[in-house]
Amino acid sequence: MAVDNIEPGTTLFELPRSMLLSSETTGIAKILQEESRAIQSSSGWVSLLLSLLHEFTDDKSRWSPYLRLVPDFNELDLPMFWNDDTLQSELKGTGICEAVKKDLQMMKVEFDSLVLPFVKKYCSHFKPICEDFEFCKKMVAFIMAYSFTEPDTDEENDDSDEESDGVVKRKTIPIMVPMADILNHVALNNAHLDFGKDSLKMVSTRHIEKGNEVFNTYGELANWQLLHMYGFAEAFPNNIYDAIDLPMDRVYPAITDGMEQSDCILAENKWRFLKEIGCVSDGGAYVLGVQGILTEIEMFQLLKVMTMNETDFKLHLEKEGWSDAEDDDNSESLTFESIAKLPTSWKEMLAKIAKLKISEHRSTLDEETENIADARLPRRQLFSSYVRYGQLKLLSTLLEACDAHNKKLTL
């Protein structure tokens, strides 16, 4: 909270790098360095997790005062701790259920193959509780909710450990930043963390009135990402980065729904072509944001190719996918306003995709409008409703754009 008026560019506090808790500053930093190859992980969090396990359970840790200020783990109400019934009832169709499942699978694999063997090998540096998966899962949640990742930069190459095309780049590592992690996030933040060579500074980005809260930013994150990783979401329309993923493996069924067999064969050939040119991928997604479709190039190619008749598609293949190249300028923008001007067949396809995604949600936009107005709603249900409402609002706006060029778009 600002105790006085704060002008833009004011340093609110500064932390020397020696105060940061990371795999490079922990008491077991030397061991982690020696075992760096053995503990490499897909998540990138294993080194920091091991550092936290050591420091959190070490009564003599120099970070004990900081770690004692950490909220009780039970307050970390991330969806990864919800039971399956709650996940499905609250978050079906939002993408969070799938993200949580993937997270838990990765956590278990990395715990069994990397964390547990390391803890047992260096048992003198850890307490027995560190061998418990459930305890480690809580520590991972702590990392998800409180850690920072230093922005990638090419400016400092001396201490780098990665090289590509002759250019050495320093690997970024997740770190715990005392004080900085007590600030809450909003999309329209009024402060941000500057990473300097010797210290980190929290700097105001605009005027902050006395008595107003100081907000940091965790990044340009959609509501589903905020709830997934941090356990909260922003009310509409405060999150200017809100978005919904349209999984590519769900787009194809939407497009081919109701097609004749002969048309399905042609659609399959088109889909295979889109995979070959990289516009479709397993596990990929098109992204719909508050201004329109964010993955513009991929979606433009999808609409262009999938709406071609057989003759045009053959011609497209003969020209190696570059037919009608002069029309590619249209792919520069797929805002809602631009979508309203697309060919009818393109808009019909987009509408089918939107309708299928809406059907996967547990509720309607009208129902969510009532939910978010209910002051009695518990935090978990309220934040879940924020996610659902925002996504349904985006899909509704997409349908509106596809419906009639005379309609005025509102979001």
* Main sheet properties: 3 strands, antiparallel
Mean pLDDT: 89
Specify the structural class. mainly alpha
Fraction in helix: 40-55%
Number of helices: 15
Order of helix and strand elements from N to C terminus: EHHHHHHEEEEEEEEHEHHEHHHHHH
Uncertain runs with pLDDT below 50, 5 residues or more? 155-170, 405-411
Instruction: Identify the overall geometry.
Output: globular
Kindly report how far apart the N and C termini lie.
31 Å
Widest beta sheet: strand line-up: 1-8-7
Strand content: 5-15%
Radius of gyration: 24 Å
Number of E-type strands: 11
Question: Can you put this structure into words, describing what you see?
Answer:
With 411 residues, this protein is mainly alpha-helical. It is 43% helix and 10% strand. It is built from 15 helices and 11 strands. The chain has a 3-stranded antiparallel sheet with strand order 1-8-7, with no helix packed on it. A two-stranded antiparallel ribbon has the order 2-5. Strands 3-4 form a two-stranded antiparallel ribbon. β3 (162-164) and β4 (167-169) form a beta hairpin. The longest helix has 26 residues, at 96-121.
